[in-house]
Amino acid sequence: MGKDQLVKEGLKLSLPFSKEACPGQDFRYTWGMAKHDEDKSSKGQLIPAPHHFFPLQDAARLGVFKEAIEQTVPKDGKVVELGGGTGVLSFFAARRAAKVWCVERDPVLADMAEKLIAGNAVADRVEVVVADAMEYLPPEPVDAVICSMLDVGLLRKKQVAVVESFKRRYRQAFPGRELPVFIPEASILAAQPVRQSFDFCGYQAPVTLICDPAARNEGTTGLADPVVYQMAIYGQDLPSMLVGELEVRMATGGALNAVRFITKNAVAILVKEKRTLDWFNFYLVAPLARPMLVAAGEVVRIRFNYEPGAGISALTTTLKVSRKTA
């Protein structure tokens, strides 16, 4: 099975939970990132340093990226990381690569990454570059590009814009060369109609929620299976708009009052083994302005559209849910 076929056929959205154990009890909204929601800058994203410390505590994410890098980066190869943050993924790459360029726009964070990389004994192979990921290009061809500016629905962060900018400039600088492999290789975006409790110790607050996919949440009930609305394969042309035009048949009846957005990232696609190394972003649960009662077997239309990297409000303000009429 070829890689493209594996992406299209093999990346079925298999949620890491059953309908009886829906994640999301651990509700979070990263208020420190709210000011980036409407960032219209053409530059790469400048995210406060403390935000970069959270991924260091996410063992599942680190483990998947570590294995993906080990499986993907060739021995003594060359790698560029766009948006290096603390440098941890460049550290993983340096264990195999002969040269790694770790690109970080924030000079304070870049200085920290340089010190951490030196402390982890890979400074001879990792060059920390203070530059904008939207503009930087390594001085020679590379085997792999790490870019993990990922958020649910490809919202808020500039993953798509940075990768597209890199591909365009890489082709111009190194004509005739194949594109390097991207880590992650693809993101699969899905939407799911749900019944969501917005009761917080008796306080009713139907607000947008960010939910941990590893947590259990008795307050979330899926009324149908998630439906994929976009697959972004980073080595191919990426969409300029993310559009949902879904018709979903309800598996369970009840009060439909929210849509859960799910993003599954294929961090590496292992063709020979016919498997992918996957990692889920936090889920986003968007409340509906007008909840509705639905019956099992009924078909519901879910519509929305937004630009990659847009703020959460770009999605929630275009979200429309209606019954399909004959």
Describe this structure in words.
The protein is an alpha+beta fold and 326 residues long. The protein has 2 domains: 19-27 and 185-323, Distorted Sandwich (Hnrnp arginine n-methyltransferase1), CATH 2.70.160.11; 46-148, 3-Layer(aba) Sandwich (Rossmann fold). The chain contains 6 helices and 18 strands. The protein has helices at 3-10, 59-72, 88-94, 107-119, 159-173, 312-316; strands at residues 27-28, 78-82, 99-104, 126-130, 144-146, 181-183, 186-196, 199-200, 203-204, 209-211, 220-222, 227-233, 242-249, 254-270, 275-280, 283-294, 299-306, 320-323. Strands 1, 7, 10, 11, 12, 14, 15 and 16 form an 8-stranded antiparallel β-sheet that branches. The protein has a 5-stranded parallel β-sheet with strand order 4-3-2-5-6, with helices on one face. A 3-stranded antiparallel β-sheet has the order 13-17-18. Strand 3, helix 4 (107-119) and strand 4 form a beta-alpha-beta unit. It is elongated. It starts with a helix and ends with a strand.
Features:
326 residues; alpha+beta; Hnrnp arginine n-methyltransferase1; Rossmann fold; eight-stranded antiparallel sheet; five-stranded parallel sheet; 6 helices
